[in-house]
């Protein structure tokens, strides 16, 4: 099973972390931007695994749920529920680069 480091997250409602935030996208070290539902499916079926790393401490993502507010499964990175959820402390995903924005001008 392939293992991937999470380097950014997109949280429901932007960067506001009030109430009951859920991660909607994972940004991986290999530059993929993965919807959380796909990551949950990959974890459940053993296709890929994901982890966060902070100050040398690695925490693997796990599927938790259902959420008591929305009823959906969600992801946590708290290695055995003994540490705070480090997934919510990962920086935001970098902005998406639009196709064609980095093209050089056409040659005459």
3D architecture notes:
This protein is about 10% helix and about 35% strand. The chain is mainly β and about 110 residues long. The protein has one domain. A hairpin with a 2-residue loop joins strand 4 and strand 5. The longest helix has 9 residues, at about 35-45.
SSE blueprint:
Layout: E1 2-11, E2 23-28, E3 33-35, H1 36-44, E4 48-54, E5 57-60, E6 62-64, E7 74-76
Parallel strand pairs: 1-4
Antiparallel strand pairs: 1-2, 2-3, 4-5, 6-7
In round numbers, the mean pLDDT is 83
Report helical residue fraction: under 10%
- C-alpha Rg (nearest Å): 16 Å
| Coarse structural class | mainly beta
What's the overall geometry?
Answer: globular
Secondary-structure element order, N to C:
EEEHEEEE
| Tally of domains | 1
Number of strands: 7
What is the compact description of this entry?
By secondary structure, the chain is mainly beta. It has one helix and seven strands, in the order βββαββββ.
Supply database-style keywords.
108 residues, five-stranded mixed sheet, two-stranded antiparallel sheet, 1 helix, 7 strands
